[in-house]
Amino acid sequence: LSLISQTEERYRFAKLSRIAGEKANRTAAYEASLNYYLQGISLLPDEHWKEFREESLALFLGAAEAAFLVGHFDKMDELCRTILVESHEEMDQLKVYEVLVSGNLAQTKLADAVEIGFKALSILGVNFPAKVEETDWREWRRRVDECLGAKEVQALIEEPAMVCEKAIMKLRILSRLLPAVYKFCPEYLPL
């Protein structure tokens, strides 16, 4: 790798490392996946976040997720912090929060997982009260009834597939957050 000196070649090999990392990840070879991603990151030149943002993000996010999956939580945190500093795009940060929720759950840091998940959801416009009251549950139920109208829940199966990226991200974060909420703060479950 030290022989690769031209910037264009470094980008090309970094991209190949990302592709190899993705393939390894799909086959559950998470340690190999992490190594490929880290190799790709090591090939990136100094100004990679400005010149090669999408590829840099894919490498760092893939490495963070692979690090979580093999239990290298310090590395996961380091990679996630880097993304949060370098990328100011909302969806990029939400993807990082999703990894951090999973990583904190895996370490049974339930309070941290809930805090991070609630922060991510607040970015998406989903806010939870500091203390759950019965009126909160009633309001939630009223809003669900209002959205469903006269439709039966069964009729939702016939609806078109969801395509809104933010709505999908809300569901992804909520689904990852559910075990922590169940164990750490079950009073939020009805919401």
Summarize the model shown:
With 191 residues, this protein is mostly helical. The chain contains nine helices and no strands.
Query: Could you tell me the radius of gyration in angstroms?
Result: 20 Å
Query: Secondary-structure element order, as H and E?
Result: HHHHHHHHH
Structural class: mainly alpha
Counting H and I runs of at least 4 residues, what is the number of helices? 9
The total count of strands amounts to: 0
- Strand fraction: under 5%
- Arithmetic mean of pLDDT: 88
The N- and C-terminal alpha carbons lie at a distance of 52 Å
Give the fraction of residues assigned to helices: over 70%
* Biggest sheet statistics: none
Instruction: Label the overall shape.
Output: elongated
Spans of at least 5 consecutive residues whose pLDDT stays below 50 are: none
What does this structure look like?
The structure is a single chain. The protein is mainly alpha-helical. The protein is 71% helix and 0% strand. The protein contains nine helices and no strands. It has helices at 7-26, 30-43, 48-51, 53-69, 73-86, 90-106, 110-123, 134-148, 165-184. Helix 1 packs antiparallel against helix 2 (30-43), helix 1 runs parallel beside helix 4 and helix 5 (73-86) packs antiparallel against helix 6. The radius of gyration is 20 Å and the shape is elongated. The mean pLDDT is 88.
